[in-house]
Each structure stands twice: as structure tokens, then as C-alpha cells.
Amino acid sequence: MPSSFSGPAIVALLVAQTVQALPWYHTKPSHQVPAQDYYISLGPRPFYIVNNMTESPLKKKLQSCENGPFKITDFSIGHRGGATLQIPEESVENAMAGARFGAGVLECDVSLTADKGLVCRHSLCDLHTTTNILLNETLAAKCSIPFTPANATSDASALCCTTDITTAEYLSLCAKMDGFNASATSVADYQHGAPTWRTELYDTCGTVQTLDSYIDLVDSLPGYRNFTPELKSGSYDPTAASYGTFPANYTQEDYARDFVQAFIHKKIDPQRVWVQSFNPADIFLWIKEFPAFGRQAVYLDESGDTPETYVAAVALLPSLKTKGVNIIAPPFNYLLTAGGPQNQSIVPSSYAIAATAAGLDIITWSFERSGPLTEVKATGEYYYSSFADAVHTDGQFYEVLDILVKDVGIKAMFSDWSATVTYYANCFGLEGPKSEDYI
């Protein structure tokens, strides 16, 4: 990790100086239950994966940990909440499940409403697939593109943005499993269509969140939890300026400032907040204007999805470090590649090697966002695209994670099912990134 410290005493002094310079925040919530008194429940999935592994020292090690004890770990980050395989994303219920799965850091993707409210939604324009907005005739009429049923030549379609409605209207919605039925001829039919390897069993009426309510929720959870809010970009579709656009006289910079000010208003210690964005300008603004937050800002990098842009993304890494970025967060297919005979081995990629050489810490995403690993090559699944020839069974989930930890050196992993990552992290004593390393 990047560090300029010569010993624990200097670290303690710098932390004390930072606290004195920022007297507005609470270092710890006074109501917190000690982490050791909060029982983690991981359910059957980690054991299913271990049982599917081929015999190896890694399998034996993971089997040795089957009785715990399990505890909260910041290595395990709840992606869109942490239980998105079964529970509507960005909802209270999802975050509660991710917390029970031991995720020490919980995510809220922050989108903007028509009245400049900040709410938890993965995209400015996903309400038509992640909520029941189309079932509300009044709110559906406000959508950027109204529902159009499928016909002989076209799929069913709609486009509903958080910027189409007010915060109060947003709070009247139910979160649902992300998906839609492209063949739907009615709004009711359009509500379904989540991947078959997910479930709609808990898709009753997920409780949507604002950024403020997410902060209050995470701050109230038993054990000591941290925050990783992600600021979304200001336009859903750059070719269609009317979609997902900001209110008048409101800019991306205003948005980025209000985003951080929400935590300042709630008196949250900036060392508990790992702000994220795909937009480099947001990261640089935080580094300049909110250095207590910016020093551990997470730059989400999705700029290398083609062979040509991948080379450019690798080349850019040293300059990001020079500009004050400490943490890079690409999808994990950027970090691994196939090697060995018939591409049956998984090894660190040029991106992973370059990021480490540049002095950047690496956090990655998103574990268990995919279906069964037996299908990744046939379906061209994104997260395994760089090493699909080497993946064959669900038992390899932990093999992939082990390579990311031991060979790449990732500091934390976002996951749609935090229990899986928590199990591994507990077994190997991984605690996640430490804010004091970025002071």
C-alpha cells in the first residue's frame, strides 16, 4: 500500500492531527454493538462452492474454516447492498442481508431526482426495470419513454429515470429484482424477466432508500460498518440529452459536492467513507476540495473493454497515481488472463501488474454477478471473458478469488452475495483496506 510512515507512533500522530482538523464528525457511532457480539450468518452457499471444488490445498484450507468463527470484514463489500442474487438491489432489505453476511462496507449507488434529491439507484435511468414505477399510471406518465408493448418487429420497451420524478415520488416506489420481459404486451408482464439463476422469492416490495436514509441505516447496524457510495454520471445516454439530465442550473460538480456534503451533514468520519466514481473529474474534485474523502476515493475504471482501449487504460495508470488517486477499481476480468497449455491457467494480467507497479491499491468488482460458471464460456459472460477457457465449474469461484488475493493483491471485493467473500476473508484473516494507509 502507498505509505510514507516510519512507524506506528507517526501514524497515530497523523490520525490525531486529522481528527483535530476535522472536528465536525463522530469517530464512532455511540450506539454500536461490538462486532464480536454480532453474529454473522453465511447460509449454505459458501459451503456449496467449497464442496464443488476439486481436491487441493485451497479446498482443504477452506474446509478447515467451516465452523468459523465468522466476523464482519471490510474485505467484503456489499455490491448494491450485498444480497443482490436474491433481494432487490439498493433496497433496505438487501443492505440488511449484506450486513448479516458480514460485509463491512455497504454500497449505495447515488442518483439524482428532479428536485435535486440524492437516492440509491444503480442508474439514473433504470426505474423501469428495478422498480414498479410502470404500475403507477401517474408516475409512468412522467417517464422519459413510456411503456411500449412488444409487437411483431420490436421488443417491449420503456425508459424511466430518477430525474423524471421528485424524491417524494421516488419514495413511493417498490424496489424489485432487476429485469424485464422483452416479449411483454402489458405492463404487468413487463415486470418480470430476472435471470433464471436469481430468484423473485423475496421480490415483494423492496424499500427504496435516499442517500440520507442509507447513511442512517448503515450507521445504525450492529457491528462497525463503513460506507461506499458511488456517484453516477449525469447523462444516461450521451446521444439523447433529454434522458437523465440534471435540473436547470445544476452541474456534475454541484452533484459531486452535494454527495460529499451529505456525509459531512451527518457527521460521518471521512475515514469510514470510500467514495467512488467512474468519472475521473469527480475523483479529482474530491481530492482537491474534500481531501479527507478524496485521499481514499475509489476510481472505478471501465475504460478498457476493447483490446485497443485496454492498452490505453493500462498506460494511463501511472498518471492517475501522479494526480493523487490511491485506489483503482476495475472489473476483475481486467485483472486476470488465461495462460498455460490450452489457456487452462489463470494468471495476473498486464493491467494488474501495471497498477501495482504504479503504487495503486486495487479493489475489484463484482463477484457472483454472474450465473453458474459452467455457462460462462457459452454465454460470453463479461466478468470471465478474459479467462473463460479456464473456467468450468462453480467450485472455481474460490479459485478465482484466491488468485485475485494472492497473485494480484486486491484489497477488497465487491460481491452480489457477500457471504461467499466473507467466508474466504475470514478463513484467511483478510480485513480489507485501512484508511490510515491513505493519510
From TrEMBL:
Record key words, sorted: Glycerol metabolism, Hydrolase, Signal
Name of the protein this chain belongs to: glycerophosphodiester phosphodiesterase
Catalysis performed (reactions): a sn-glycero-3-phosphodiester + H2O = an alcohol + sn-glycerol 3-phosphate + H(+)
PROSITE patterns: GP_PDE (PS51704)
Family to which this protein belongs: Belongs to the glycerophosphoryl diester phosphodiesterase family.
Domain GP-PDE per the UniProt entry, residue ranges: 74-408
GO BP term (any one): glycerol metabolic process
Family annotation (Pfam families): GDPD
Species of the source: Amniculicola lignicola CBS 123094
InterPro entries: GP_PDE_dom, PLC-like_Pdiesterase_TIM-brl
Hydrolase among keywords: yes
